[in-house]
């Protein structure tokens, strides 16, 4: 379980911390995430994508020649964001962590199954050496184990921080 605290500066005085189980459920059920990476020249790059929560981490995939993959080759630090596009109500979640490439075939098969279970048969992936089959080569798969997660509640307003032990 992560260490959890609420930042009273950014919320309603009577707000309580978002439980980790609630934030984790949001990560597991959210359909669209926004991935933020850093280009080689230091400029940010943000793109929407699909992700699966599996084994205590978010997983994303991208074609080997896409901007995301090239950015991650130089700087694996990322932010993944998901939530509700509403001012009043819901929960936005921000995950900070390091993207580590998944190449183990058994893990890739499990992740391919997780993608299809979550998003349906349109998101079926065949496993190949180094990732998922892609018409343009190989789609790399990355595991983002959280180092810090923020939960931004909007009814009442609150900011909860979840800190994970990193090695």
Automatic annotation (TrEMBL):
Top-rank lineage group of the source organism: Bacteria
Molecular functions per Gene Ontology: coenzyme F420 binding; oxidoreductase activity, acting on the CH-CH group of donors
InterPro entries membership: F420H2_bilvrd_red/Heme_oxyg, Pyridox_Oxase_N, Split_barrel_FMN-bd
UniProt-listed SUPFAM superfamilies: FMN-binding split barrel
Pyridoxamine 5'-phosphate oxidase N-terminal domain location: 23-122
Keywords from the named record: Oxidoreductase
One Pfam assignment: PNPOx_N
Keyword Oxidoreductase appears in the UniProt entry: yes
GO cellular component terms given for this protein: cytosol
Entry protein name: General stress protein 26
High-level lineage: Bacteria, Bacillati, Actinomycetota, Actinomycetes, Pseudonocardiales
